[in-house]
Design brief:
The complex is a heterodimer of chains A (615) and B (224). With 615 residues, chain A is α+β, with helices and mostly antiparallel strands. Chain A has 21 helices and 14 strands. In chain A, strands 2, 5, 6, 7, 8 and 9 form a 6-stranded antiparallel β-sheet that branches. Chain A has a 3-stranded antiparallel β-sheet with strand order 3-1-4. Chain A has a 3-stranded antiparallel β-sheet with strand order 12-14-13, with no helix packed on it. In chain A, a hairpin with a 4-residue loop joins strand 8 and strand 9. The longest helix of chain A has 25 residues. Chain B is 33% helix and 21% strand. Chain B has 7 helices and 11 strands. In chain B, a hairpin with a 2-residue loop joins strand 10 and strand 11. The chains are: A alpha+beta (615), B alpha/beta (224). Chains A and B meet through helix 15, helix 16, helix 18 and helix 21 of A and helix 2, strand 3 and helix 3 of B.
Chain lengths: 615, 224
């Protein structure tokens, strides 16, 4: 009997290579484990959609298509994608107005919108906020790992800010409200797609786009995937509401998921230390994330609500995410009612998030909530401060171009030398234009003036050429680091700057010599290795937020001629070019560039180049 | 004047030319600069360049792109090298950027002070009087989407160069056809082959063929 079933299932799989799509049917354990954390909606088929993009590589990773599936959108696959994801919720407005929808278009299961804290909502406790225009499609598993799948643009839920500020339910697609209408747009999906794939390629945690279904008037359903889509704000609302049982269940659910997905290993089993483990994981995650964001110039509007970020430090909601070309640490996004945080304030926000987790853990363990101020000096924050700088030290060594082995030695044995160099580096990185704050299209900025990637890329080559003692003079140094934002006045020499230029090079060479002495290799060989790696890590043209916006506009202008497969091809080519991992697989070559880029990609690279210093 | 033209091929095929080029520098600790035809993925080509010449004992390398902005400091240092190697790729694109940054004058001065200038495939073609040989044969030619009309190049040698030559009728037909219209001899080299120019004398490496006024000749005396 069992064998017959197995055979049946096998033959079904063979006959339908897309059978795994059926797993994504609205079911998600959060609905059962923490029902208070979700709002369930019936959903119906949304007609008129076309698959504008499908991420074949990601679909293979999730097991949605067979490994050997071509990057081809077959009619069957299109049908499966639309059938699974082209949906819209039946919301409160629909019910109040007794809208009747054909029964055969209503899906069997409900789909959930999740509740979480959002600072832009009038209620600062998160009783009314959450997914305003998204629902969770469910989960998909492969090889012991489970991913969450959600879609944005699937209808207006009662958790949107518009609904709660105006105290009314909105019909999905109501043109009088933008975000609150429940729809999302295709350019949002494409921005997230290009941005997230570049960042994922470079080892950052992020949501990824599985597909984009487009509708008329530039509307779209943007499907996103991550191994766990929970955000800190999914816990902070219950904390604010003093709802211990729900809070505990969400925390327990998260720990279990991370453990089952084998992302967290050796999770303690006893009920007390498991929460200490959880807090420690959060501290590590947010210390690393905030150091990485700062060092990679990633602006992600972090705030006390724990929104705009995933529990594992992954990036979500690319609407306000940017990557700067320089350290524009004074940039602030203008969100009409408020200014965003700046990139350098992100650390404090991340620290506050850890403080909130310390409060949560204490609350769960002692069943009594203490005020957040009580945790100002909590040991987890002391650890956070230390680990933040550990990660900053690691990051600067990686950016210089040291291999992990060399970096590890320097971190362990030469911390003071690393910090001395980092201090010189930061001095130049932080330098701002004498012009003062300037208005930019979406906010305000006080331009940074030096491009540190350029000096990291070129200094080792110049030193290698001139010999280890062949330092650059002050003029040469400034000539290399000056960006397109620097004015003549900005580049004026000063005694302090001259001293810093000398100190930068002295401390740089010191690190090379330390590695050379420890590993008994010639300093010039260390410099050569560093130079090679640095030329990849600090590539001249690295993507910025502005460049993504312009690239998406370019792709949009080519639609509908550009097929979903073609977008996939362009994306692959583009993200491969933006892969700044010096250890990536190398193509066979003999100093002869074999790659001919498509015309569109050439245009994109031109855009990246043009906006390389921007925001 | 010390110039080495490479056809193409892998590092083993080019070892003889690489050794010869290094020897031409006369430097004990030579300083090499790699200039790729395009900055696109050039870091990878640079890695291969370093890997190959490191095996021959070189330790000092620079990487310099002409299609991205560069500083005077970098350019000055590049021109102090003992050997400059122009990589392969799209000949028209490379030519466009070399001209844009007036690199020809710099290279001429570099040669005058005793530097060794090497070019592989596209990098070799740009050293000749013009880059017409990049436009044929029709089944294996470089794209010219920029529609460049002025195809004059560095004119460091008085012959044309055809890289990646395959001894076959279809190549010969197009090469003979072209040579009828040209006053210059055209040297066609298979991968691994090349031409060494030292003090106006030519040395051939590999089995090189010469096309001149519609006829094909095989150079019988060569290295390697």
């Amino acid at each position: 009997m069992g064998n017959t079933k197995l055979n049946e299932s096998r033959s079904l799989k063979e006959s339908n290579p897309y059978s795994k799509f059926k797993q994504i049917d609205g079911n998600h354990p959060l609905k059962k484990n923490v029902p208070e954390a979700v709002v369930e909606y019936q959903v119906r088929t949304r007609h008129g959609g076309q698959v504008a993009f499908f991420n074949f590589d990601l679909a293979r990773e999730l097991g949605l298509i067979p490994e050997n599936h071509l990057d081809e959108l077959t009619e069957e696959l299109k049908k499966e994608i639309l059938n699974t994801f082209s949906i819209v919720i039946i919301n409160e407005y629909d019910q109040m107005n007794n809208f009747n929808f054909p029964k055969d278009e209503i899906k069997a299961n409900t789909y959930m919108a999740t509740r979480y804290l959002q600072l832009q909502h009038p209620c600062k406790k998160g009783t009314t906020s959450g997914d305003g225009r998204s629902i969770w499609n469910g989960q998909v598993s492969k090889g012991g790992k489970t991913w969450d799948v959600s879609s944005c643009g699937t209808g207006a839920t009662k958790l949107s800010p518009a609904c709660n500020i105006n105290k009314k339910f909105y019909q999905t697609g109501d043109p009088t409200v933008s975000y609150g209408c429940g729809y999302s747009e295709k350019d949002e999906g494409l921005s997230s797609l290009f941005f997230s794939e570049v960042l994922a390629k470079n080892g950052l945690e992020t949501e990824r786009v599985l597909g984009i279904i487009e509708f008329q008037k530039g509307l779209a359903i943007n499907i996103r995937v991550h191994d766990n889509l929970l955000r800190p704000s999914h816990m902070f609302n219950h904390l604010k509401q003093n709802n211990l049982p729900t809070l505990k269940r969400v925390v327990d659910y998260y720990i279990e998921r991370q453990s089952k997905n084998k992302i967290w290993k050796n999770v303690p089993t006893d009920s007390k230390s498991i929460y200490d483990y959880f807090l420690n994981q959060m501290m590590e995650t947010f210390a690393e994330m905030s150091a990485n964001f700062e060092d990679q110039y990633i602006f992600c509007w972090l705030d006390w609500d724990g929104d705009n970020i995933l529990m594992d430090g992954g990036i979500i909601d690319y609407g306000s995410v940017r990557q700067f070309g320089l350290y524009h640490h004074e940039y602030r996004y203008d969100d009409v009612q408020r200014w965003s945080t700046s990139i350098k304030e992100q650390k404090q926000k991340a620290r506050y998030i850890v403080q909130s987790f310390a409060q949560i853990v204490d609350y769960i363990k002692n069943e009594k909530k203490r005020p957040i101020e009580d945790f100002k000096n909590h040991h987890s924050l002391v650890s956070f401060d230390k680990r933040f700088f550990d990660y900053k030290n690691r990051n600067i060594l990686t950016k210089i171009g040291f291999t992990p082995k060399y970096a590890e030695f320097l971190l362990e044995s030469c911390r003071k030398d690393v910090e001395d160099f980092r201090s010189d580096f930061t001095y130049f990185e932080m330098a701002k234009s004498v012009k003062g704050p300037q208005k930019v299209p979406d906010g305000i900025n006080w331009n940074a003036i030096f491009c540190m990637r350029d000096i990291l890329r070129e200094l080792p080559q110049l030193m290698l050429s001139r010999g280890m003692d062949g330092h650059l003079n002050e003029g040469e140094f400034i000539d290399i680091i000056k960006s397109s934002y620097a004015t003549k006045k900005d580049l004026k020499r000063s005694l302090r700057r001259d001293l810093k230029i000398r100190s930068y090079q002295k401390n740089y060479i010191k690190l090379m010599n330390k590695v050379a002495a420890k590993f008994k290799i010639a300093p010039a060989k260390v410099l050569l290795d560093v130079s090679m790696r640095s030329s990849v890590i600090n590539k001249y043209d690295r993507v910025t937020g502005d460049s993504i916006t312009n690239i998406v506009a370019k792709v949009m202008s080519k639609r509908p001629k550009l097929s979903a497969e073609e977008i996939g091809g362009i994306l692959k080519e583009f993200t491969e070019y933006q892969n700044l991992n010096p250890d990536k697989d190398r193509k066979p070559s003999n100093f002869e560039s074999q790659k001919e880029q498509s015309r569109l990609v050439k245009g994109m690279l031109q855009i990246v180049r043009e906006f390389r210093d921007g925001i | 004047m010390k110039i080495v033209l490479y056809s193409g091929g892998n590092e083993n095929e080019n070892r003889v030319l690489n050794i010869k080029a290094l020897k031409l520098t006369g430097a004990d600790v030579p300083k090499l600069t790699f200039i790729p035809s395009s900055s696109y993925d050039a870091e990878e080509d640079f890695k291969f360049f370093v890997d190959e010449f490191s095996k021959l004992g070189v330790q000092r390398f620079m990487h310099f792109c002409v299609d991205t902005p560069f500083t005077k400091t970098m350019l000055g240092e590049v021109l102090k090298s003992d050997l400059i190697f122009l990589g392969g790729g799209n000949t028209f694109y490379f030519l466009k950027h070399l001209k844009k940054h007036k690199m020809f004058d710099h290279f001429k001065k570099f040669l005058k002070r005793g530097g060794v200038l090497c070019g592989l495939s596209a990098g070799a073609i740009v050293l000749t009087p013009h880059v017409h040989t990049a436009s044929f044969p029709h089944f294996d030619r470089d794209e010219n989407p920029w529609d460049m009309k002025n195809l004059s190049a560095m004119r460091l040698v008085n012959f044309e160069f055809f890289p990646h030559y395959k001894n076959s009728q279809r190549y010969d037909e197009e090469l003979k056809h072209h040579s009828k219209k040209s006053n210059l001899p055209l040297y066609a080299c298979p991968n691994g082959g090349g031409i060494i120019i030292e003090n106006d004398g030519l040395t051939f490496c590999g089995k090189v063929h010469c096309f001149y006024q519609g006829k094909k000749f095989t150079i019988s005396s060569y290295l390697g």
